[in-house]
Design goal:
- The protein contains 17 helices and no strands.
- It is mostly helical.
- Helix 5 packs antiparallel against helix 9, helix 8 crosses helix 9 and helix 9 crosses helix 17.
- The chain is globular and about 60 Å long.
- The termini are far apart.
């Protein structure tokens, strides 16, 4: 009888460390060339945007990996899963609503979602939490209220549209998603390393941060590149009311890769666009952007990231359009 060899998914547990190391070494080796290059306005703009995105995201990534490590170290296996309803169709909206309790941005929600799946939470519920946490937490809503003082309905619209998109995508994953793409990628996270809890906490947090940090750097570089090469005149030329402007700002949110705590102030400055188009910018940004795609690909795999990001983009645009038409 011929034996079968089952190949497990290829994982690079230290991929983030390798990426950071390569980038640092390359920066040191190319320092003379880079010093002269930064004198060019486009290169200087790229460097400014890259550093801004990275510095803006790192604190929330640290918060995310700290929560993730705490779940792995201090929470008994399966405890969180037992707190949610057993039926996925009920667990999804419950987990999405729970996202309001975690202040942070999308970078921190990825390692937390991975840890939730590893601890037994149904993938659809963990993904709904991943989408809602950076979009409906109190810090984001307060920032939106400050950015749109003349349009208080924008806060309610952002809350409802983001929650609708998170729940909708979670339910779609229940119906059509492939849980194996998620569970296979996080299987190694199921338990913390052996030893004292404090040591296990720091070891787990260090592992998660190095893994996610490298992909954050790659995503920030991609976002900085797109911001540098994208002509602003092209965006301004299509800022007319209608579905096209909604789609344009949704794509712009993906490209700019702003932190959810700061994106409202950018949206408020896009006065040439309608409120509904700017709502799409605020709903899509925390759920789908270049750095988030890189983090998801590094955590769950590229096949998951492509499927999930495209589906989330469509659902988020639809939710923003519907709520914008109703409230704005």
């Amino acid at each position: 009888m011929r034996s079968q060899v089952v190949r497990s998914p290829v994982r690079l547990p230290e991929a983030g460390l390798a990426l950071v190391t390569v980038l640092v070494l390359a920066a040191v080796a190319l320092r003379p060339a880079l010093t002269g290059l930064l004198g060019h306005p486009a290169a200087a703009n790229w460097a400014t945007v890259f550093v801004a995105i990275t510095i803006q995201a790192v604190p929330f990534l640290v918060l995310g990996v700290a929560v993730s490590a705490s779940i792995a170290t201090f929470v008994p296996p399966g405890a969180i899963a037992r707190m949610l309803p057993e039926r996925p169709v009920l667990a999804v909206p419950t987990a999405a609503a729970a996202g309001a309790a975690l202040p942070g941005c999308e970078c921190g929600s990825v390692p937390i979602a991975a840890r939730l799946v590893a601890s037994g939470v149904t993938p659809a519920a963990a993904l709904a939490f991943l989408l809602s946490a950076p979009a409906i937490n109190p810090i984001v809503l307060v920032a939106t209220a400050v950015a749109f003082p003349g349009h208080p309905a924008m806060v309610l619209a952002r809350l409802l549209a983001s929650l609708l998109a998170a729940v909708g995508m979670g339910l779609l994953w229940v119906a059509f998603g492939r849980d194996d793409l998620v569970t296979a990628a996080v299987r190694s996270r199921a338990a913390a390393p052996p030893g004292p809890r404090t040591s296990a906490f720091f070891a787990t947090a260090q592992h998660d941060f190095l893994q996610a940090g490298g992909f954050l750097v790659v995503g920030a570089a991609a976002a900085a590149t797109m911001q540098t090469v994208l002509p602003r005149r092209l965006v301004d030329s299509i800022a007319h009311p209608g579905p096209l402007s909604v789609l344009v700002l949704a794509v712009l949110a993906v490209v700019l890769a702003l932190c959810s705590e700061a994106d409202a102030f950018v949206a408020a400055g896009l006065k040439q666009f309608s409120l509904t188009a700017r709502l799409a910018f605020l709903v899509v940004g925390p759920m789908v952007d270049l750095k988030l795609f890189a983090l998801q690909a590094g955590t769950f795999g590229s096949r998951f990231a492509w499927r999930f990001s495209l589906g989330t983009f469509a659902v988020a645009v639809a939710a923003a359009s519907l709520v914008g038409w109703w409230l704005l």
